[in-house]
Amino acid sequence: GVIAAAGLYALENNVERLAEDHARAAIVAEGMGKQGWKVEWDGVRTNLVFFSLPEGCGMSPDEAVALGKDEGVLFGGGYT
């Protein structure tokens, strides 16, 4: 119903924006990987990046969220 309608609207009106989001996600994933973060990246082009903090990094999840926000990257989720 309502969620499907929102998805259809997005597909019909925001395809260009989605391509930009995918490209930005790839940049974020690559940068996180270079910094030693554990990024689950299998080459699929999506706007989602799944990652975990490396053990012993000295950063809490809340600190990682704050760091991302300072760099213009918003995190969501919190899956374990």
Rounded to the nearest angstrom, the distance between the terminal CA atoms is 30 Å
Order of strands in the sheet with most strands? 1-2
Shape: elongated
Major sheet details: 2 strands, antiparallel
Cα gyration radius (Å): 15 Å
- What is the residue-averaged pLDDT? 83
- Count of DSSP helices? 3
Q: Output the helix-strand order.
A: HHEEH
Q: Could you describe the 3D structure shown?
A:
- The protein is mostly helical and 80 residues long.
- The chain is 52% helix and 8% strand.
- It is built from three helices and two strands.
- The protein has a two-stranded antiparallel ribbon.
- The chain is elongated.
- The mean pLDDT is 83.
Layout of secondary structure:
Elements: H1 2-13, H2 15-34, E1 38-40, E2 50-52, H3 61-70
Antiparallel strand pairs: 1-2
Brief characterization of the structure:
Helices cover 52% and strands 8% of the residues. With 80 residues, it is mostly helical. The longest helix is centred in the first third of the chain and has 20 residues.
Keywords:
52% helix, 80 residues, mainly alpha, two-stranded antiparallel sheet, 3 helices
